[in-house]
Amino acid sequence: MQFPSSHYTQQAERRGPSIHSSHYPNQPLSHNPNSTVQNPWPNGLEDENERLQKELNQKVSTLRSLSIRIGDELKEQNTFLSSMAGAFDRSEGVLRSTMNRVLGIGRNSSGCSLYCYLLCFASLVFFICWLIIRFR
């Protein structure tokens, strides 16, 4: 769709002057108070930009310190988890050897009597615990 050239000029008039138009100087902004170049931007915009930049720098430094603390916590947790894994491996070995001994009892000729004693002992312990809880 083709727009007439007057359409573009009407849009430009509604938007106001652009940065590239002749209303603004083509020279860089000068911070020299004795300069003859007029600053096209109000001083408040520069102050606001500096304030926003300081806020952004503070937020970035806060995020940086937070990420460093998270990294330190991760290293500490990984160390803790690796020590726990070693403890579980050791306890697995102890439980495996205990199970082998218990299963080895059944292979002996006196294994049945030992299983009966073990069952009676476990029953007695559970009965005593039940009495303690019941008559508390």
Please explain how this structure is put together.
With 136 residues, the chain is mainly α. Among the domains are: 44-105; 109-136. It is built from 3 helices and no strands. The longest helix has 63 residues, at 43-105. The chain is elongated, with a radius of gyration of 42 Å. The mean pLDDT is 79.
Topology (SSEs and partners):
Layout lengths: L4 H11 L27 H63 L5 H24 L2
**How would a textbook summarize the main sheet?**
none
State the distance separating the first and last CA atoms: 93 Å
Broad shape? elongated
Alpha plus pi helix count: 3
Helical content class? over 70%
The number of strands is 0
What's the Cα radius of gyration? 42 Å
Order of helices and strands: HHH
Structural class: mainly alpha
* Fraction of residues in β-strands: under 5%
The stretches of 5 or more residues where confidence is low (pLDDT under 50) are none
The overall pLDDT average reads 79
Domain T-SNARE coiled-coil homology: 43-105
Protein name: t-SNARE coiled-coil homology domain-containing protein
Keywords: Golgi apparatus, Membrane, Protein transport, Transmembrane, Transmembrane helix, Transport
GO cellular component, one term: Golgi membrane
